[in-house]
Design a protein that fits this description.
With about 250 residues, this protein is mainly alpha-helical. It has one domain. It contains 13 helices and no strands. Helix 3 runs antiparallel to helix 10 and helix 7 packs across helix 8. The chain is globular, with a radius of gyration of 18 Å. The protein starts with a helix and ends with a helix.
Length: about 250
């Protein structure tokens, strides 16, 4: 399938089918299931950045976390989370993540931090780099688990990974439908960037939406631009549909 109009027709049908609260359940696990329970930008960021690996295990781990600790003392956080771990994040990393988000919460809203740089040229990447740099200044940890979780700003776009988890988080925050929460009002959904995981990358390559061979930031930008030819004002409305087509091995 290489005809973009037929691909758009397929995705439009899939979009109507997927834009449903039934898509988020323990039978169809997704970290958004937990994030929507709280409708909070800080908790949602934790949910999004832990979203790597098996979806069922991600949801199980997020379910085990007590997010009310973000309102508690740093000593309480250290005590309560000393035995929690998830894949690359050891217990100390989980503690440090909560400490960092607590400090971020005390500093400013995440939307304001992103908007501060985004507003200059309506470039979401500028907002993302400001968010990451702000986060990294809040805690000195430099472990593998902590670095993998929050990432760093890239030295150049050509060396950048996908930043998939951040872009997914931005989608949750900016778009509003039966899936996405739309908690932010300052960022335009036309400026969102596609979160490129393995499922989305493979499906997009297979149906002709993406030519780039590397699963990286440049591929995310290329796919976003292709989807803007389908809907220039809301290209990421197709994200969840493409993801499910790959995850459920329909395509």
């Amino acid at each position: 399938m290489s005809n973009l109009s037929s691909i758009k027709e397929l995705l439009d049908k899939e979009l109507l089918f997927r834009d449903s609260k039934e898509e988020l359940s323990y039978q169809k696990p997704d970290p958004l299931l937990i994030a929507k329970r709280f409708e909070d930008e800080y908790i949602s960021l934790i949910c999004a950045l832990f979203a790597y690996g098996n979806a069922k295990l991600i949801v199980k781990f997020l379910d085990s976390l007590d997010f009310s600790l973000l309102e508690q003392s740093e000593e309480r956080i250290k005590k309560e989370l000393k035995s929690f771990y998830y894949r690359f994040q050891k217990p100390q990393d989980v503690v440090d993540i909560f400490l960092t988000i607590k400090r971020l919460k005390e500093l400013d809203s995440i939307e304001n931090i992103v908007y501060k740089e985004y507003k200059k040229e309506q470039k979401l990447l500028d907002g993302l780099w400001n968010l990451i740099n702000t986060i990294r200044a809040l805690h000195p940890s430099n472990t593998h688990g902590f670095n993998f979780f929050f990432l760093n700003s890239p030295s150049s776009l050509s060396k950048a990974g996908t930043y998939k988890r951040y872009f997914m988080y931005f989608r949750w925050m900016v778009r509003e439908d039966n899936l996405d929460m739309g908690l932010w009002k300052k960022i335009n959904k036309k400026d969102l960037i596609m979160p490129l995981d393995t499922h989305v990358f493979n499906v997009s390559k297979r149906v002709g939406l993406l030519n780039r061979k590397s699963c990286d930031l440049k591929a995310s930008l290329e796919l976003t631009n292709t989807l803007k030819t389908f809907d220039e004002n809301d290209p990421l409305k197709y994200d969840f549909a493409i993801y499910r087509l790959g995850q459920e091995k329909i395509l």
